[in-house]
């Protein structure tokens, strides 16, 4: 009996250790019939800021580059990065700032294609609070919606409030997700203001339920709000995956660069026509408008601008509890690479 008890204790210890350290080996990529099998988690498949992910699939660019890709949706960027770190997925389409935040936790993620130089986010204020909240300086005592704590919307919300002289003790950050849960939170008093993206922005503005308070869907709006560029939606992977499988990373990078170039050459109507019909559930015209309002965020080439990466570090260094104490030791060159995008642009693979 005592022997069995010892065995049970030993097994429990092993299982606990595996839970902590037993992540899948990211250096191994599944193959089928000689083609890489890649799973990419996207921080909201229906969000316009991450439109290049589904559009790449719909245009056939993954297949054209001899790679099989499965796209999975996850509304929280923080949850997506966890799936990447545990090896459940091989890549994430999410905000670049996660690579900086994770380096502060001694984890190495690297952006290999930068879709946008700006967040593509807007801070909305509810109809009920529009008279009371005219700028971030009015955030004190208010309930501010973010996708989740530790998400990019959380970082950006802290930055907007911080530049108005406030800390997180001066307002409440409320997890409301995105899409319908965000809308419900705002329409039923769960939040006074909140950060979200198109098509939710277009839907709430058209209905009159909210107004745009801060618009970071354009370069001008982003520079005004954050003091510079803030590269956001991107394709990032674990550093050891990038190092071990450069040929597979190149296939992915080339596919996404082809899509970014296609976006620049086509109208919002043509882009909307390529997307799944259910993405226009609130109406085709509204969906086209949401693309028109946000499509300028995409850079067309997939390159990271060093100026933008530095501004991300500047902001996280002030407002991220993880990055702030390690700001001076962060190596930005380890958080992104333009190598694969440059080869794609040059037509070399």
Automatic annotation (TrEMBL):
PROSITE patterns: PROKAR_LIPOPROTEIN (PS51257). Pfam families: NMT1. Keywords: Signal. Residues 54-268 form the SsuA/THI5-like domain. It comes from the Bacteria. The keyword DNA repair does not apply. SUPFAM superfamilies: Periplasmic binding protein-like II (SSF53850). One of its GO terms (biological process) is alkanesulfonate transmembrane transport. InterPro entries: SsuA/THI5 (IPR015168). It is found in: Periplasm. Its main location: periplasm. One of its GO terms (cellular component) is periplasmic space. PANTHER family: ALIPHATIC SULFONATES-BINDING PROTEIN-RELATED, TAURINE-BINDING PERIPLASMIC PROTEIN. Belongs to the bacterial solute-binding protein SsuA/TauA family. This is NitT/TauT family transport system substrate-binding protein.
């Amino acid at each position: 009996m005592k022997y069995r008890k010892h065995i049970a204790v030993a097994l429990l210890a092993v299982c606990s250790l595996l839970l902590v350290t037993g992540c899948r080996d990211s250096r191994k990529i599944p193959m089928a019939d000689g083609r890489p099998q890649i799973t990419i988690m996207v921080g909201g498949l229906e969000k316009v800021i991450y439109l290049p992910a589904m559009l790449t699939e719909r245009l056939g660019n993954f297949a054209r580059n001899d790679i099989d890709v499965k796209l999975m949706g996850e509304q929280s960027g923080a949850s997506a990065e966890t799936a990447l770190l545990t090896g459940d997925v091989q890549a994430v389409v999410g905000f670049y700032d996660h690579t900086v935040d994770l380096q502060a936790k001694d984890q190495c993620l690297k952006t290999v294609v930068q879709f946008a130089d700006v967040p593509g986010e807007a801070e909305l204020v509810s109809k009920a609070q529009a008279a009371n909240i005219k700028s971030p300086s009015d955030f004190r005592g208010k309930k501010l919606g973010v996708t989740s704590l530790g998400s990019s919307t959380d970082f950006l919300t802290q930055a907007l409030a911080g530049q108005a002289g406030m800390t997180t003790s001066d307002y409440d950050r409320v997890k409301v997700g995105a899409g319908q849960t965000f809308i419900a939170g705002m329409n039923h008093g769960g939040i006074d203001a909140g950060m979200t993206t198109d098509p939710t922005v277009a839907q709430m503005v058209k209905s009159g339920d909210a107004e745009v308070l801060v618009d970071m869907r354009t370069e001008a709006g982003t520079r005004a709000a954050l003091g510079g560029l803030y590269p956001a939606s991107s394709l990032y992977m674990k550093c050891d995956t990038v190092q071990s499988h450069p040929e597979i990373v190149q296939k992915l990078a080339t596919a996404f660069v082809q899509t970014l170039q296609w976006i620049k050459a086509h109208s919002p109507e043509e882009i909307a026509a390529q997307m799944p019909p259910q993405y226009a559930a609130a109406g085709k015209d509204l969906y086209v408008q949401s693309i028109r309002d946000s499509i300028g965020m995409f850079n067309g080439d997939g390159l990271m601008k060093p100026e933008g990466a530095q501004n991300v570090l500047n902001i996280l260094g002030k407002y991220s509890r993880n990055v702030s104490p390690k700001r001076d030791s962060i190596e930005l060159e380890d958080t992104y690479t333009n190598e694969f995008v440059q080869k794609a642009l040059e037509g070399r693979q």
